[in-house]
Amino acid sequence: MTENNFALVATDLKKYYPSVKAVDGVSIELKKGEIISILGPNGAGKTTTVEMLEGLRKPDSGRIVYFEKYEKITNEVKERIGVCLQENFFFEELTVFETIRLHASLYNTKADFEEIIDTFQLGEKLKARTKYLSGGQKQRLAVALAFLNNPDIVFLDEPTVGLDPQARRHLWDVILKYKREGKSIILTTHYMEEAHQLSDRVYIMDHGKVIAHGTPQELISSSGLNSVIEFPKQYAEKINLEGMIITGEYAYVSVTDPVPIIEKLLKANVRNFVLRHPTLEDVFLKLTGRKID
Ligand SMILES: Nc1ncnc2c1ncn2[C@@H]1O[C@H](COP(=O)(O)OP(=O)(O)OP(=O)(O)O)[C@@H](O)[C@H]1O
């Protein structure tokens, strides 16, 4: 193992509450320059896991090693970590620039402010009080703050929530730019496409455990899913296919040979079906029995 190959290695983390094993033996590795995503349905234990990695919650047991060297969040580690929490908190009366300056003052290392302002397209809003920012502008500011200390590890919890599709894609480019610069990023997201586009590897959690991990392609290939046929759920009862999952408005079935199923659908006069390649969302659905939202 070469020095600094791993930004973070967490082994067998556990956090139990009286009524629930929130995290029950989770191991996660984050390599230098890698983006990983943690996905899971509500209550799976994602936030608890990430908060333990961020040093905000103490594990009951398990081990976290940062930069192959530090076993807890020392001042040196704190300097090298950036965090964007799900809930943003800003001082409403401060301007965007004052907010940036205040956050930067917490760290010895400082990124180039101008570059950050430019990267997150905050230039026009520097003099605006944060209370007057739109939801999307607040979100961009929150993510920008996570990069102010030029961190090596960045935690981004739902970073693109509230952004329109164009702003979301722009933020994806920004995240990928930082990855290319060698930063390691841990992402939690409800958007499967986002996880697929950005992540080198994905960890899927359910009931406090990691139930699958790998590259998006590995997860799709190893899921055994071949083709997916999707159709409105009102036809589900009429057709009754083996292995069918019904969620939201649609029924899904994964098949090796789609022809017999399509024949069945046509015979039942169902014409508005879709045949497609499986996605990370289908893997998630198969593993957890639930859609992520
Ligand atoms: N402080 C706490 N006391 C008791 N139970 C807790 C506490 N924090 C979390 N839990 C429970 O632990 C489980 C995991 O919660 P966690 O917030 O980590 O899940 P999550 O995957 O982040 O969910 P979501 O997607 O809804 O944010 C849940 O059942 C939750 O109710």
Automatic annotation (TrEMBL):
Its main location: membrane. It is found in: Cell membrane. InterPro entries: AAA+_ATPase, ABC_transporter-like_ATP-bd, ABC_transporter-like_CS, ABC_transporter_ATP-binding, P-loop_NTPase. Pfam families: ABC_tran. Keywords: ATP-binding, Cell membrane, Membrane, Nucleotide-binding, Translocase, Transport. Residues 8-232 form the ABC transporter domain. GO terms for molecular function: ATP binding; ATP hydrolysis activity. One of its GO terms (cellular component) is plasma membrane. Belongs to the ABC transporter superfamily. This is ABC transporter ATP-binding protein. The lineage of its organism: Bacteria, Thermotogati, Thermotogota, Thermotogae, Thermotogales.
